[in-house]
Amino acid sequence: MTNIETITLEVPDTAxxxxxxxDAFGLTTQLRFRVAxxxxxxxRGYTLSLTVAQPADVDSFVGTAIAAGATQxxxxxxxxxGYGGAVQAPDGAIWTIATSAKKNTGPATxxxxxxxxxxxxxxxxxxxxxxVGHGLTVGKSFGRVYVEFESGDNSVKLALYRRKALAxxxxxxxxxxxxxxxxxxxxxxxFTDPDGFAWxxxxxxxxx
Length: 208
Prior knowledge:
15 strands; five-stranded mixed beta sheet; globular; alpha/beta; 2,3-Dihydroxybiphenyl 1,2-Dioxygenase, domain 1; 39% strand; 5 helices
């Protein structure tokens, strides 16, 4: 079964990105960075998410992200799904922090349950079929709306959502062009999915 083993973000300054993600979210080993100058405009077609236990944790992560230099896209608020907010990192990546809980059960913590890479795709059913063909196992599926794949022991999950709906969830316009500025490591051999997201072999990703 294919799983995500690494996430590589293409950024203008790797040292600055390392500082931001450590200060904002406490991420020191979960992400990789490499310098790239590929053009990218507007929505990059994906979000990265931290799923947490309670609203206070959402507020804490959003607060430290903004203090570290992120731009707030959506202030934390309740929704029919729970509670969450969205920020854009200085490198341009969009992050959402969310919980299915609507009430706090204790003081805020700096713990998160998982990192989720949510791809905004043109056709959820077609992309689901593509990824199943490349060895991923479906964990949850809601027709042509949303698909989440099993992640095994890895803390990084992959999910698919319609591009316009994902952009709305993140608080940005759905239009965008150029590079996604992200590469996923974990494939047995390199491939590119129907929406242009690149998967690399783990060995190649670790050399980034």
